Amino acid sequence: MTIRLGLVGLGKIARDQHLPAIAATEGIELTAIASRNAGLPDLPYFHDVDALLASDTAVDAISLCTPPQGRFEQALAALAAGKHLMLEKPPGMSVAEVEALGRMALDKGLTIFATWHSREAAGVEPARAFLADKTIRSVRIDWKEDVRHWHPGQQWIWEPGGLGVFDPGINALSIVTRILPEPMHLVASTLDFPENRHAPIAASLAFRTMSGAPVEAEFDWRQTGPQTWDIRVATDGGELVLSHGGSRLAIDGVQRMAEPDREYRNLYRRFVELVGTGGSDFDLSPLIHVADAFLLGQRRVTDAFHD
Amino acid sequence: MTIRLGLVGLGKIARDQHLPAIAATEGIELTAIASRNAGLPDLPYFHDVDALLASDTAVDAISLCTPPQGRFEQALAALAAGKHLMLEKPPGMSVAEVEALGRMALDKGLTIFATWHSREAAGVEPARAFLADKTIRSVRIDWKEDVRHWHPGQQWIWEPGGLGVFDPGINALSIVTRILPEPMHLVASTLDFPENRHAPIAASLAFRTMSGAPVEAEFDWRQTGPQTWDIRVATDGGELVLSHGGSRLAIDGVQRMAEPDREYRNLYRRFVELVGTGGSDFDLSPLIHVADAFLLGQRRVTDAFHD
Fold this sequence. Notes:
Chains A, B: This is D-galactose 1-dehydrogenase. With 307 residues, chain A is α/β, with parallel strands linked by helices.
């Protein structure tokens, strides 16, 4: 049975990623759009999720790709109406609100999928398999990109809940928490805030794994020229390098794979599976690490940022 | 069988609260002390928890009342050695590290007790019972005290992980999360940082319950004169006031109880029960709300603070 999907939010990520991924995925079809600004030709259109849910247009599931601020009320409305739920990353603007949604979905027997698209990059599962029986010696994460290129004019990323440089950085954390064979926790955090912004533009983080290996991360939103999304893991069985955001994997310098981006297609295929089996996928550890980074963060003030 | 307890940390909270509470509790006895600075007459003394665990002095359980920074390694050592574990509040300096400890204790079949002493105040359980079938209309928390009186010369409270004004504020959050009949989540946070400190001296928080009732909290460490630790809950069945940190309860202005402080005795009695039944008590929601408050916090800089 095909899942009838209502897509809420029709911004950049929805147009760039969600629409083509939904169109390419069997078992799910786009049935309605809710967005404050725009609809699509030949599709029922609503101003917001409440209007969609109150309408005659039947949907089985809701996919939220609005900014994280305000997403809680939309998610709550979807679950209250008995709809399965898929959440863009980050799944909300606070840990507590997302935990509450997870409990509610569980209580109501609905699927909830807190997506982390970077975990679907081609190199991630092979990296996880390689590391499963290794001893981790150290991890180094460099996640450096140009915010002006990737978030042109998006003000919500600088507001509370928008996460600043952790909006991309949480992608790196979602990969690392998947591939490492043991949990890690933060021990030190330095955050650079532009003097005119309430969110950090750069962050320097030091974690430790349970067995004590250092995990260092450098996030920076001021990178022009080549962009860097690399994770290096030194182990007793060689050095693993995940680059290009996880789509390329090399071990001891030998390229193991380099595949085109299918992250969002994988997400929607997984959502169809989860709804079919009555399961959920709801790992908040990347968001928890970000909250910890703010909790423990030493704050430095840096140059003003202007779009 | 009496639990042989090793107490780690012999600072203000250990001397003021833990030692008398342990002495007054059946089923547990203080067997050893680990502390960098001081021991007690007639008790085996060790410089740190590792030395205690490596010694001939047998203990069944460890109670940690060191500052949260560095407590993870102590907790890990205790669990690795097969000891039951009791943690002062806050249970650690990050959410992720405490979650990792919880999973480890569960895996090893050991008791872990993340204590929230304010939940043991006399009015808390009666308040919880009163609110269980009520509709919450609004909640107001005022938690205002004089840091110079309560934390004389303690520098760790101002360091990352020391939480600043959330060190007392988390007590209020531990009560509210216990007595309200549904979860809440943060929607806005303002934090006041002294210009010479890395932790807030005041905080203004706005939460919502799942059904949308506002929960407002004002934390301030600059209160001289009378101290304020009050929680007011407006419901469809009357107004509840928990004051004096939870030890006094009034409903619609009628005093229901006012009992002396037995918080730490209750904690140790509960720990004895948990060890006896093989259970754990491990609710991180107060710490998660604090992490969320930093994650979403709008930061203001205020006057320098000097002890």
